[in-house]
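QA checklist item 7 of 12: single-chain prediction sanity check.
[x] sequence parsed
[x] length recorded as 311
[x] structure emitted
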Amino acid sequence: MRASFFWVLLLASTAAAQATAARSVPERFARTDPAFIVIAHRGCHNPAPAHRLPSAPENSIAALHNCIALGVDMMETDVRQTLDGALVIIHDETLDRTTTGHGPVAALTLAEIRSLRLRDNMGGAGAAATDAALPTLDEILAAARGRLLLNLDIKAPIYAEVIAAVERAGMADQVLVKTVAGPTTPALASLCPYDRVPFAPILLNPHGAGDLGLIARRQTEQARPIAIELPPMSPDQLPAVVAQAGGVRLWVNTLWRGFIDGWGGDAAALRDPEAVWGRMLRAGITIFQTDEPEALLAFRARSALSSLVTR
């Protein structure tokens, strides 16, 4: 009976997350139910066997559709600019890993790039070429509008151009933008163009020993950011950030080995989610960016079930 209840809850949780995804970033990030936010790194590119979803090229329209089907809260995706000024969705500076082409993105026109095919999942020389073309920012925005929140990781000094495109699409409240902030960086959320969209600073951690609490306080002194993204860091640095963040949500990447030393990342979380994601949640982190969104969503549903059973 308990197992059946879990699967019913998981399906209900997925449906609720899909409905939530259509809300604005400020509304979603202000809510405390569910307990934490799930962000899919470069979209939902890994297979999701429980949902019978195959792999998809990272940063693709297919990866976005997988995210909608899974019910994640937000898709992280990357923006670069072509030789002729088009805004396209790709992580690397070059085309080599994720497409059938070669060379810098900035050295080719949009037409040249659109003639290439995306490689499956995270790409690489051994990854199969798919039928999908590299999408433009406008295409990703259109596919996500009203269905999925987006975090745009802008990979070049083109913030004004990207935010202008977001505003033209009528999606200024459905997109989050971020950039790095160090000890002397002013409160970025109050500055143009970051004040035109939900914004999150990424704290810099020079030499692994920066005063992250000080940087967090400076970034929340004027206009409050929507969140604060943590850098690779020691767990000893976390309490100061939690104390100085002023209630702003903290975001951590659990990619690869994880960004908090010794606490583990996605690989460890697949073996023991409570020891990784649960530990971070108890420490005050409420946004997780992952390459394993299906497993993280299942952990969130189990956590909700456990809370109901123990009441």
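[x] summary fact logged: The radius of gyration is 19 Å.
[ ] second reviewer sign-off
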